[in-house]
Amino acid sequence: MENSGYTTLTRQSGLMREMRIVANNIANAATTGYRQEGLVFSEYVQAVDGASSLSMGQGNVRNTSFQQGTLTQTGGTFDFAIEGDGFFLVETPSGERLTRSGAFSPNAAGDLVTMDGYRVLDAGGAPVFVPPGAADIAVSSDGTISSEGDPIGQIGMVQPLNPREMVREDGVMFRADDGYQPAEDARVLQRFVENSNVNPVLQLTRMIEVQRAYELGASFLEAEDERVRQALRAMSQ
């Protein structure tokens, strides 16, 4: 295969990855706390002795948008949203994870848990406990939970030390391998949830652009294949 074919194939591979990412963004446009993803393309330039340099583009790096999503009032006592930069701290079987999805509820034991049953943690890494039968639950902006005016716990809000290096493990859970610290400038809003920060219109527009670019590359590869076939047929005559 000639250099033009290899260059086009690397571009096509990146476009396929971006199409999957865009489709996943659209599918999660209504997912609470979801963070939109994008794909970063990089260029590789290889010098060739006695010829022009060879340039190839490849899309391998995923980029997550941490832009604040819109907040929706739900009225749920244990629905929470973070305003500002910060994440809720959650305990999973694989370790501590960070999330912006704050639709919580107490389980049978009184632990505050996510929709998947993972326990919500305070800033020190201990489970947040809501005593069964606790009445008049209120949560202040710093995450302190009170029952009838008496503090009973505090929801942890943390900030990753290196946000760009966080690893997404599913739609709303992130792993911060570089660690995290308390989120000083974030505040909790009770009876609200944060919507996905996906803009469906922009994502649909991008999907059309990626599809057209992929079809253009496919047409080029087909034309190159036919050119090579014609050249081989001419040589064999």
Radius of gyration: 25 Å
Specify the oligomeric state: single chain
Largest sheet: 7 strands, antiparallel
Element-level helix/strand string:
HEEEEEEEEEEEEEEEEEEH
Residue share in helix: 25-40%
In the predicted model, the low-confidence regions spanning at least 5 consecutive residues are: none
- Distinct helical segment count: 2
Number of domains: 2
Mean pLDDT rating: 87
Strand content: 25-35%
Backbone structural class: alpha+beta
Task: Describe what you observe in this structure.
- With 237 residues, this protein is an alpha+beta fold.
- It folds into 2 domains: 3-66 and 198-236; 71-194, no CATH class.
- 26% of the residues lie in helices and 32% in strands.
- The protein has 2 helices and 18 strands.
- Strand 7 (105-106) and strand 8 (112-113) form a beta hairpin.
- It starts with a helix and ends with a helix.
Short description:
The chain is built from 2 helices and 18 strands.
What are the key terms here?
237 residues, alpha+beta
Describe the SSE topology.
Blueprint: H1 3-27, E1 37-46, E2 54-64, E3 71-73, E4 80-83, E5 87-92, E6 95-99, E7 105-106, E8 112-113, E9 119-120, E10 137-139, E11 144-147, E12 150-154, E13 157-160, E14 167-168, E15 173-175, E16 180-182, E17 187-190, E18 192-194, H2 200-236
Helix pairs in contact: 1-2
